[in-house]
Amino acid sequence: MPPAARPPTVERADGAMRILIVEDDRETAAYLKKGLTESGHEVAVADTGREGLERAANESFDVLVIDRMLPGLDGLSIVASLRAANHNTPIVVLSALGDVEDRVMGLRAGCDDYLPKPFALSELLARLDAVTRRSGAETRLKLADLEMDLLARAVTRAGSEIDLLPREFRLLEYLMRHAGQIVTRGMLLEKVWDHHFDPQTNVIDVHVSRLRQKIDKGFSAPLLHTVRGAGYSLHVADAEEEPRQATG
């Protein structure tokens, strides 16, 4: 069995944030992206509620900026869905509905802040900084000499860059966020593959094997271990741990 959980180190990188804007109005989205990018942040945009929910649930962002009135899936439904799935990324909701009742409804849905339109970009920036500061937003994960920069989407081990495909990056991120724990195939299927594959498929084993080759090959201390009959674990092995757990 793996040792007790050793949570990954978390750092903030010079105040820069990776932000997802979910806004169907192109002019507003362009204004927000330009202003936030010029302020030094990395910005992605989704123009529908469905796309916003998909990206927020499956990609790493420091904060979400979500318009309340969206086609198909409204902003508060996105917030409620993410919170129900235990996604704790800070969320600021933007809305032309600014009455007290509307703001209360937004906060009760799970958003961290509610900013009525129209608003000043400087105020939005201040609120984004406040909600991420309160949450301790993660920009870097570290386990032993393995480091993941969530803003730059870069991975290194012992200072050497590791080239990962998008799915491999998501897989490693999930494992690093659960470092020291046993992660089952079912958990990976749900959180990394979104149930898009038959549970009996070997796609997870194939991807784990490829990831292990990239992060462990050439290093004396393997980090990615197979726990037979249970799943996988990313951790620094104790001296007494059975070598067979590092294979498969």
Keywords:
Arc Repressor Mutant, subunit A, 8 helices, Rossmann fold, single chain, five-stranded antiparallel beta sheet, disordered N terminus, 248 residues, alpha/beta
Note down, in words, how this protein is organized.
There is one protein chain. This protein has 8 helices and 12 strands. Helix 2 runs parallel beside helix 3 and helix 6 packs across helix 8. It has a 5-stranded antiparallel sheet with strand order 1-7-8-9-10, with helices on one face. By secondary structure, the protein is α/β, with parallel strands linked by helices. A hairpin with a 2-residue loop joins strand 7 and strand 8.
* CATH architecture descriptor text of the largest domain: 3-Layer(aba) Sandwich
User: What count of helical segments does DSSP give?
Assistant: 8
Protein structure class: alpha/beta
List SSEs in N-to-C order: EEHEHEHEHEHEEEEHHHEE
CATH class category of the largest domain: Alpha Beta
Strands, total number: 12
| Poorly predicted sequence stretches spanning 5 or more consecutive residues | 1-14, 243-248
Strand order of the largest sheet: 1-7-8-9-10
Number of domains: 2
Strand proportion, as a percent range, falls in 15-25%
Instruction: Give me the CATH superfamily of the largest domain.
Output: Response regulator
Q: Give the fraction of residues assigned to helices.
A: 25-40%
- Rg measurement, Å: 20 Å
Biggest beta sheet summary: 5 strands, antiparallel
**Quaternary structure type:** single chain
Classify the fold: give the CATH topology of the largest domain: Rossmann fold
Mean pLDDT: 83
